[in-house]
Amino acid sequence: MTFKTEQEAFWAGDFGTEYIRRNQGDALLASNLDFFGKALRQASGFRSCIEFGANIGMNLRALKLLHPGIDAYAIEINAAAANQLGEVIPSAKVYNTSILDFVPMRQWDLTLVKGVLIHINQEVLPQVYDKLFAACGRYLLVAEYYNPVPVAIPYRGHDDRLFKRDFAGEIMDRHPQLQLVDYGFAYRRDPSFPQDDITWFLMEKR
Predict the structure, then answer these.
(1) Across residues 157-185, what is the average pLDDT?
(2) Residues 6+ apart with CB under 8 A from 181
(3) N or C: which end of the chain has fewer CB within 10 A?
(4) Strands 198-205, 178-186: parallel, antiparallel or unpaired by DSSP?
């Protein structure tokens, strides 16, 4: 697999594989159940979904419990993570590729990206926004670190690997058909169901 950016190679390689160990378990699943219960409370009638950057499927596990029978697909750049993801959803519905190389051939009722845009090279974000919009049949849920202006943050000893900005606002500016339905914040110090200081935005294509 060849990559267009340093960030893609970073997550496809050993660092991305090590990420798997840190981001799994029953506590995370419980937090995700609480998270999606809140973030999708204004969404209804969705029967299919695709997650951009699904890792081993902890988000999809929660969605499948909350919405049994949902037809789930996923994109994941790291081969080890994609292999484990195939235990959560059928392997045929796992695209082991870079988001930048993924071409949506259909639309899904719910398109999801959570903690992924923050790690993508900022120069190619418009391309990713367009892919999210193209894949979105009705709802788009974006859950990332928010900042009103773009800023780069050192990440586990690495530079240019973590960025904060108004991802959802930029997506809606670029694609006015998407309108904000709901938004909220999940705090890392929540005593019951912590998340990693994520601000989420639920949009609907109209």
Answers:
(1) 92
(2) 42, 43, 139, 202, 203, 204
(3) C
(4) antiparallel
Average pLDDT over residues 112-120: 95
* Residue the block writes with tokens 């900022």: 122
The proportion of the chain whose per-residue pLDDT surpasses 70, expressed as a percent, equals 91
Per DSSP bridges, beta strands 198-205 and 151-152 are: unpaired
Cβ atoms of 73 and 93 within 8 Å: the answer is yes
- Which structure tokens are listed for 148? 């009103």
Q: Chain-wide mean pLDDT for the chain?
A: 92
Taken in order of first residue, the domains within the chain and their CATH numbers are: 6-205 (3.40.50.150)
Tell me the whole-structure pTM to 2 decimals. 0.94
